[in-house]
Amino acid sequence: MVGATTEAVAANGFTGPAYDEPPIIEVRDLAIAYRGKPALSDVTLDIYRHEIFGIIGPANSGKTSFLHALNRMDAFNTAMEVAGSVRINGKNINHWRNEYALRSRIGVVFPLPVGLPLTVYENVAFSPRLRGIRKKDRLDEVVERCLRRAALWDEVKDRLDSLGSLLSGGQQQRLTIARALSQEPELLFLDEFSIAVDPVTTMRIEDVLKELRSEMTIVLVTNLVQQARRLADRTAFFLMGELVEIGDTEDLFEGKVTDQRTTGYIEGRFG
Amino acid sequence: MFAATPLNRRSYRNQNVARAVFFLMTVALVIPVLIIVGTLVVRGGPALSWEFLFTAPRDNMTAGGILPALVGTIWLVVVALLASVPVGVAAALYLSEYAPDNLLTRTINLAIINLAGVPSIVHALFGVGAFVYFFRFGASILAASLTLAVMTLPVVIVATRESLQAVPQAFREACWNMGATRWQTIRKVVLPNSISGILTGVILEVSRTAGETAPIMFTGATAFVAFLPESVFDQTMAMSYHLYYIATQATDVSEQLTFGVALVLIAIVLAMNAVSIGFRVYLRGLKKW
Fold first, then answer.
1. What ipTM was assigned to the predicted interfaces of this complex?
2. Structure confidence by residue, pLDDT tens digits, B154-181
3. What range defines the domain where residue A54 resides?
4. Which residue in the set B100, B102, B174 is minimally distant from A116, CB to CB?
5. Which residue in B163, B164, B177 has the most chain A C-beta atoms within 10 A of its own C-beta, making it the best mutation to test that interface?
6. Over the stretch A20-61, which tens digit does the pLDDT of each residue have?
7. Which chain A residues have a beta carbon less than 8 Å from that of B173?
8. Is residue A152 a contact partner of residue A171, using CB atoms and an 8 Å limit?
9. How many domains, in total, are found in chain A?
10. Which tens digit of pLDDT belongs to each residue from B9-29?
């Protein structure tokens, strides 16, 4: 179903987020706590296909926890308690019999780059191998395509066999993005991806993200307000575990807000 | 402006004193080792010969070699390893990678620490009760090795768990986020990066197993058999027990012979430790992050 949508969009030229289709992510009354201590409460929102959905907010406002809840990382963290419902593609994520299949369709990029202690090639081939792709030429193709898309190919094509963890910070972050893309994800979560990346690389990655939008839905958590403005179609503002505001990014930045705290944060008066 | 204040001078003096004290302690640590090894080499060295290593004792232990004890020790160590390594590594993998942090896990961890603190003679009595009598293995290599395995299990578990936990959590999370199961993560990322550390732990365990006397003396070691063990149900001689026996029980054993046995025993242990250190150096060179 998603594949069909992507093809249609590609054929017609990408026209923007699919607000007329059912949302890809439906979050209802989501609450997250760690050992009973609330981290996020009462979040209800929809994210639509081919949208870049920005989440802004200061540290400790529950942004990362939100992403963790969406791909069921609570299964690996006994301290994390999740209430409410999240539906992806119309299906409650707690009803996926195999949560690993869910995660394999969601690419995640962390704040600090994590190059697995494998070669550059194996870093990107990891997920395809998990999916059962064995043939060398097929893997080569996936690795090259993903590294090109992450704007890293030219820098590493001659050293695919060296360790991914030995690349520079900015390169490792692009490697992480290539790895996420190698999952052929329907959803791409970026969690403050530019913290450890220089500004030039950040701009290159941002250009990549704009292109990727035609193929996938991107949830962009960022503490750089201007980054959300540059990229996001709609933006949500989280503050101290509360969803304060959600709206079209341009509206928020033009001051069309319902809560003055949003303006305060966007204009840099706090946070 | 940059002149040293009295406080600067005092700090400087204190740090020199601290360094001197720590250096002396370190020297104090090395001296006994040097004395032991030196004495053994000087007094036991002349006893060493091919005949010493490759023949059985003769004339009521007063002459001949140590072959049955050497071979017996190898049997004991290998069988103990076969029992303790799979169990220990699997348990460590469970505790480190799967177990939720709950009361049961904490109890198991506590039990492991306690198991490590049980004196070896208590392990020996446990071995007699459990393996010799209850499981009816009799006094045999099997019973002795299993006793050694139980005793060294905590070493394997702790060493394995530590090398597993030295693998950064971020690697696991990156794998999980790609949809890898815990087992796929362990197999592809965690184990390849901790295997050297696990091997180091195993080798340390070997050296400990080779030197133990108490756990084997009631469970399978015997003072003298002229033949080499043929199966795990045989009794056997062992280096450590042989040393104990000729030093305290047998009469008219030359001092040189006793020191020779001790020298071979300590050479085995030191050689294994050297291999372990070698692994560790190799591991550092291989460190991938």
1. 0.84
2. 989 998 999 999 899 889 999 998 989 9
3. 1-105+222-271
4. B174
5. B177
6. 889 999 999 999 999 989 999 999 999 999 999 999 998 888
7. 73, 76, 110, 114
8. yes
9. 1
10. 999 999 999 999 999 999 999
Q: Decide if B177 and A76 are in contact by the 8 Å CB cutoff.
A: no
* Residue B201 distance to chain A (closest CA, Å): 22
Residue A114 within any structural domain of the chain: no
Q: Do B289 and A100 touch (CB under 8 A)?
A: no
The one-letter amino acid at B91: A
B195 contact A CB<8A? no
Distance between CA atoms of residues A223 and A220, nearest Å: 10
3-state secondary structure chain B: CCCCCHHHHHHHHHHHHHHHHHHHHHHHHHHHHHHHHHHHHHHHHHHCCHHHHHCCEECCCCEECCHHHHHHHHHHHHHHHHHHHHHHHHHHHHHHHHCCCCHHHHHHHHHHHHHHHCCHHHHHHHHHHHHHHHCCCCCCHHHHHHHHHHHHHHHHHHHHHHHHHCCCHHHHHHHHHCCCCHHHHHHHHHCCCCHHHHHHHHHHHHHHHHHCCHHHHCCCECCCCCCCCCCCCCCECCHHHHHHHHHHCCCCCCHHHHHHHHHHHHHHHHHHHHHHHHHHHHHHHHCCC
Residues of chain B neighbouring A73 (CB-CB closer than 8 A): 173, 176-177
Residue A39, domain CATH: 3.40.50.300
Count of A–B CB contacts within 8 Å?
68
Q: Topology of domain B51-286, per CATH? A: MetI-like fold (1.10.3720)
